[in-house]
């Protein structure tokens, strides 16, 4: 769980990098060091988001506060991960199918406005997960 939380924080930092750099210009150097791994961090977040949502759907019987928070985190991991990994997904998965490529671009266009807020929330939830508050 610690690794998952750390990856969520890194993904959140990359997703919200424009906001972070506007508030703390000296953070640009640190963000530039993790940006080359953006696609792979995104792939991990997509995987964990899908895995988490499937796990939660299979456990609907335990619906409650924890379930809702976990579902929100999984959905955010998927959305932010998809945005971060879109370049890799497009290159390796969608490239051969024009219809899938168009649908991927449409989904990306719908989600892009949520990248920065989603990144900020993912950072917060990752930190809360590490602190065992979430």
Characterization of the model:
- By secondary structure, this protein is mainly α.
- The protein has 7 helices and no strands.
- Helix 4 (38-58) packs across helix 5 (65-94).
- The model has no long low-confidence stretch (mean pLDDT 84).
Note the topology.
Layout: H1 2-15, H2 17-23, H3 28-34, H4 38-58, H5 65-94, H6 98-111, H7 115-130
Helix pairs in contact: 1-4, 1-5, 1-7, 4-5, 5-6, 5-7
What percentage of amino acids are in beta strands?
Answer: under 5%
Helix content: over 70%
Helix count equals: 7
Task: Please identify the structural class as seen in this structure.
Answer: mainly alpha
For the record, give the distance between the C-alpha atoms at the N and C termini, rounded to a whole number.
12 Å
Average residue pLDDT: 84
Strand tally: 0
Main β-sheet description: none
What is the chain-wise order of helices and strands?
Answer: HHHHHHH
Low-confidence stretches: none
Oligomer: single chain
The Rg value, from CA coordinates, equals 15 Å
Shape: globular
Key structural traits:
134 residues; single chain; mainly alpha
Task: Describe the structure in brief.
The chain has 134 residues and is mostly helical. The protein has seven helices and no strands.
